[in-house]
Amino acid sequence: MSTTPPFPEYELPDTHYLNATHGSGRSIRDWLLTTDHKRIALLYLASVTVFFFIGGIFATMIRIHLLTPGGALVSPETYNKLFTMHGVAMIFFFLIPSIPAVLGNFLIPIMIGAKDLAFPKINLLSWYIYLIGGSFVLYSFGTGGLDTGWTFYTPLSSIYSNSAVTPAVIGIFINGFSSILTGLNFIVTIHTMRAPGMTWFRLPLFVWAHYATSLVMILGTPVVAITLLLAGLERMFHLGFFNPTMGGDPILFQHLFWFYSHPAVYIMVLPAMGVVSEIIPTFARKPVFGYSFIAASSIAIAVIGFLVWAHHMFVTGESTYAALTFSFLSYLVAIPSAIKVFNWTATLYKGSISWDPPMIYALGFIGLFTIGGLTGLFLACLGLDIHIHDTYFVVAHFHYIMVGGAVMGYVGGLHFWWPKITGRLYPKALSRFAAIVLFIGFNLTFFPQFILGYLGMPRRYHSYPPEFQVLNVLSTAGASILAVGYLLPMLYLFWSMRYGKVAGPNPWPATGLEWKTDSPPPTENFHVTPVVDWEPYDFRNRPDLGLVAGAPLAPAHGDD
Amino acid sequence: MQSQLPLYPPEASNFAPQVDALMIFITSVCVFFAAGITIAIIYFFFKYHRKQADDIGVPIHGDPRLEAAWIIVPSILALAMFAWGAVVYVDYRHTPSDTLDIYVIGKQWMWKVQQPNGLKEINEIHVPVGRNIRLTLASEDVIHDFFVPAFRVKMDVIPGNNHYNTMWFRPTRAGRYHFFCSQYCGTNHALMGGWVIVMEPTDYAAWLSGSGGGEGNPVAVGEKLFAEKACITCHLANGSGRAPSLNGLYGAQVLLAGGATVTADEAYIRESILQPNAKIVAGYQPLMPTFQGQLTEEQILALTTYIKSLQSQPVPAKGSGIAPVSVAGTSPATEKR
Asked: 3.30.365.10, 2.70.70.10, 1.10.760.10, 3.40.50.620: which CATH number matches B218-335?
C-alpha cells in the first residue's frame, strides 16, 4: 500500500552544492575553505557525529558498569570521569550544535529564500572555533580526564579535583563563541534576507524556533563562558571567586552556571520542536493547528526560560521566597510547551496521515517529550523536589527531554531532509523499524530510572545498595536496544548516500521553499530568486505539489 | 516489608506521607494528560491514515476557544501543584522550636555526627521516634548533601564562613534507613553514606547514656577552648571586658555599629568567630583576630555549643551587646526560632 504519491524516476541535477568546484578544484581544500552554508552544515554533521560516538561510548561503559551493585567495570575514579566526559561531550559538543548547526545551517537560508547566511565567512569561522574548543576538551579527556561532573560545581572543580579541569573549561569557553556566532548569523539572516513575500508569519515554524534558540545562544552563552573561565582562573591562580576559605561563595557559581545551563536545555529542545512542527503538517497534509500559538510559544519559552534557573537550587538553602518565585516561574514555562504538544496533536485531526519514517520519529518525539516535560512538573514542585532532587529521577527527566526530545527530533529531521541534503532516499521499511526500536529502547533505558530516583538512588554513584540492582539491569538492557536504534539509521543513511533511490526535488511532498529547488540544491540554493505567494503548510492552493487539485503523478516504484 | 520491587521507599518521617501524597496527585494529573495525548495520537494515526496517495487533510487552521482551554486548564492545575508543593516546602524550611539538635559534618568522604551530649558517631546517626530533630550541617571541604530517602528530605551541606544549612524532620517509625550524600563530591561520593537508626525514645535515651564513648560534653570542650584560645580575656562575663559579654547572647537581638540588629543564631556566632570584623557590635572596636583556618569544624561547633549554653546566664546591665528588650519586644529566650 503506497500512501505517498508515486513519482517519476528522477535523476540528480548535473551540478549541485556537493559536486560544484570553486577555483582550485582540489576537493578537500574546497570543503575546508567553503563558505557555503550547506557544506558547513555537513562539516558540522561529521564533527558532531564524532562527539556523539565519543559520548555514546562513555554511556555504554556507564551502563555496563552499573550492572552490579559494586560496579562491574571500572574504578570509582574512572566511573566519575566517564559520566563527566559523557555529559560534556554530549551537551556542549553534540546536543547544543546538533540541530542548529547542522539542520539550521543547511535549511534556514533555503527556507527563507536566501543564497546563504548573512555572514558566510563567520559561519565557517564558527566551525573552526568549535573544532578548536573541541580539541581542548579532547586533550583534557586524553590527559587525565575530567571528574567534576558536567556541572563543574565549585569548590570541587576549582580546588579539589585532581583531573584536567583547566583545558576542559578553556575548551568550553572557546566553544561558546561558536554558538554565539551561529546565533548572531541566524538572527541577522532571518531579519534581513527573507525572499519577496516571505513575511514573518509565513516563516516556517522551524525558523521561528531557531530565532528563539538564537536569542538564548546570544544572551546566555557569554554567561556560562565567563563563569567557567572564572572557575578556571580560580584553579590556576588561586583567586577566591567561589572558594569559601578565601571569602568566595560556592553558591554564586551555581547561580551563574544555571543562568545559562537551564536556558541551554531550550537551545537543545526548541530546534527539535521546530523540526516536529515541520514534519507533522507535512505528513498530515494540512496546515499546522494554531501556527501563531506555536510560533509565540517558542519565543515565550526562550524568554521565561531565562527566569527559572534557581529551580536547580531548591535544597542549597536558598531563601524560601526565592524558591517560591522560581518554582512558580518554572510552572509558567511549562505552559508554552504544553501548548505546542496540544497543537501538534490537534494538527493530526482530520489529516491525511502518512506512515513515512519522519512522521514516526516526530510522533515518537511527542511521546517522549511529553513524558520529559510532565516529569519537569514533579521537579518544579518544591515539596517533591526535596526528595527527588539529585536522584535518578532527574537523570531520567533530562534524558527524556534531551535525548528522547532533542535527539529524536534531530534524527527525525535528518530523515525528513535527507533527500534534500543528499538527493537520495533511504529504505523506508527499515527506517520505520529503526524509529520504533529507538522509541522502545529509549523507554526501557530511562523509565526504570524514574522509579530508581523515587526509591532514593542518588545520581553519579559508581556503586549502589543491592536493592537497586533489578532496575539498573533493566535500564542497561534497554540501553542495548537503544544502541541498535542509533546504529541502524547511521548505517542505512550512510548506505543511501551512494545507493539510495534518487529523490527528486519534493519527494514527500512538502510545502516549504526548500522543496522548490533541486535535491541536492545548487550552491546558490535557487536558480531564480523565489517569490512567496502562499501561506505556510497550505496544501489546498498548491497545484505545484501534484496533489488532489493538481495533475496525477507517474506510477509508483514499489518501494514498500 | 515491601514487595520485591517497591515503587517508593519506606515512609518513616512526618514528611514522607506528605511528599508521597504530592507525588500521587501530580502523577495522576500527568498520567491523565499523557494518556489523553497518547490515545488521541494513536486514534488519529489509524483513523486518518492516508487512503489515497494524493489525498490532503482538511485545512483547519486553529480554534481560539480550544487554545484558551488548553492554556487555562493546565495553568490552573500547575498552580495547584505549585501551591501544594509550596506548603510542604515552607513547612520543611521552617524549623519548629522544640527540636533535638544534632550536628552533622560532611567531609570527603565521610560523615561525622555529634549528639546533643557530645557523643560522636561516624556514618551513623541515632534519633528517637516522635521528636523533632534538627540537623545543623557543616562541610569541611566541598559541597555535600544529606539525604534520607525514607524521610523524603535532603539538604546541601555547604562550606563557608557564615553559612550553616539546617534541616528538620520527625521520625515516625523505628528502623534502620539509608542516608546518602546526594551532591556529587568527588571520587568516593557513592560511598559517603550510612544509616539513620530510628529508636524508641527510651531505647534512644539508654543508647545515649549507655554508649558512653563520647569525648566529653561539648559544652565542657567548648569552655576549655574558650580559655585556651584566649577568648576569655576579652569576652568577660560581667561585661567589663574589651569585648561584649556572651551571657544570654544566643537567640537575642544584637545591636550592631551602624544601628542594625541581627539575631544571634549559629550562623552569626560562626561568622563572628571566623570573620570577626564582618559585624561589629555597637560600642566596640574591631580588635578581635580572625580564627579562620585555626579551628576545626568540630571545635567551632564546641565553641558554639558552649556559647549557646551561656544563654541562661545572667546578662550584665552594661557590656552585653544585646539590643534593648523594648526594641526586640521579646525576651532573649523566646526569640529563638
From this structure: 1.10.760.10
